[in-house]
Amino acid sequence: MRLVAGLALTAALAAQDWPQFRGNPALTGVATSSVPETLALLWSLNAGEAIESSPAISGGAVYVGTQAGELVAVDLGSGKLKWKYKTAGPVGESSPAVAGGLVYIGDLDGVVHAVNTQDGKGVWTHKAFSEIKASPMVFEGKVLIGSYDQSLYALEAKTGKLVWKFETSGPVHATAAVAGGVTFVAGCDEHFRAIRITDGKELYAVASEAYTGASPAIGGQYAYFGTFNNEVLAVDLKSHKVVWRYAHPQRKFPFYSSAALAGDKVLVGGRDKYLHCLDARTGKALWTFATGSRVESSPAVAGRRVFFGSNDGRLYVLDILSGKTLWEFEAGAALSSSPAIGGGRVVIGAQDGVLYCFGAK
């Protein structure tokens, strides 16, 4: 009975994790754990160099990469450092993914690392031919990750051995989303691609007509992502067509933030300093919220609240229905990292190297 109870508790805790960029394989940015109504700063940790990587939360630990060339593991409850692992080069926007007792991350020297979650010791590395800013996606024993060498790699999760490599016509900056045994990549070569995970075969490609750095969010038969052509797109995965394009009528700026998909709402930050909330069915704006600088942080959703950072140095919490401010925190340094929500806590990194954790006091 104790074993059964222990397994049930472990499963319940895992269900509250945020084990990868955007929280889940579909990259929807929606939390599986609730967040206290009243938030307070519980702890902060200075990691030494800028944090552009977005944290992962798994098994009571927080994992994040830094420009110091380190993957850092921190105790979620206390904020105490557990271990540091030295990567081959600085870690940019690549964010950790945790699965099967390993944590995976890419660095700007083009190396993918697999590290033991318990002791921070390296298990394997795989070298690409150019920098890695994409975040790893772990699915059915494979690690999917893009590189600026214009390729999407599928590596064996346990060994790092190459399973297949798909070559595009431009850098693969975005993180690959997964749904129905297919991985979806919005590329810098102005195409949105669907690739079969088993063998790396391209199933179809849809012209986005724009350089794309944002990762797609998958909901039902649609994918949503912003582009450097100052638009947010919805792609129908059945008809393989763009079904709507959203552009702000006045403010013409790129969308670099990856979208969150909460029910019938698409939430995405823009370099126009706004967070945009769109109707997922029509692409029409429901509301916009102005910050003091670019919003490159990808929003995270918990219940009726959306959480995101801005380069104005603030973490914002808004009501998802009205777009009104519910709470904000002044970090004092740009927040281009995206929030992770797990175990009832919100964690985000700042450009001055400080990692913040918020929850109930």
Shape: globular
What is the H level of CATH, i.e. the homologous superfamily?
Answer: YVTN repeat-like/Quinoprotein amine dehydrogenase
Provide the CATH topology: Methylamine Dehydrogenase, Chain H
Oligomer: single chain
Give the termini separation: 34 Å
What's the helix count?
A: 1
Determine the mean pLDDT.
95
User: How many beta strands in the DSSP annotation?
Assistant: 32
At CATH's second level, what is the architecture? 7 Propeller
The CATH class is identified as Mainly Beta
> Would you identify the regions where 5 or more consecutive residues have pLDDT less than 50?
3-13
Q: Return the structural class.
A: mainly beta
Biggest sheet strand order reads 1-32-31-30
Helix share, percent: under 10%
- Sheet with the most strands? 4 strands, antiparallel
Number of domains: 1
How large a portion of the residues is in β-strands, by DSSP E?
Answer: 35-45%
Radius of gyration: 19 Å
Key terms:
1 helix; 4% helix; disordered N terminus; Methylamine Dehydrogenase, Chain H
Helices and strands in order:
Blueprint: H1 2-14, E1 40-46, E2 56-58, E3 61-66, E4 70-75, E5 81-86, E6 97-99, E7 102-106, E8 111-116, E9 122-127, E10 137-139, E11 142-146, E12 151-156, E13 162-167, E14 177-179, E15 182-186, E16 191-196, E17 202-207, E18 217-219, E19 222-226, E20 232-236, E21 241-246, E22 260-262, E23 265-269, E24 274-279, E25 285-290, E26 300-302, E27 305-309, E28 314-319, E29 325-330, E30 340-342, E31 345-349, E32 354-359
Antiparallel strand pairs: 1-32, 2-3, 3-4, 4-5, 6-7, 7-8, 8-9, 10-11, 11-12, 12-13, 14-15, 15-16, 16-17, 18-19, 19-20, 20-21, 22-23, 23-24, 24-25, 26-27, 27-28, 28-29, 30-31, 31-32
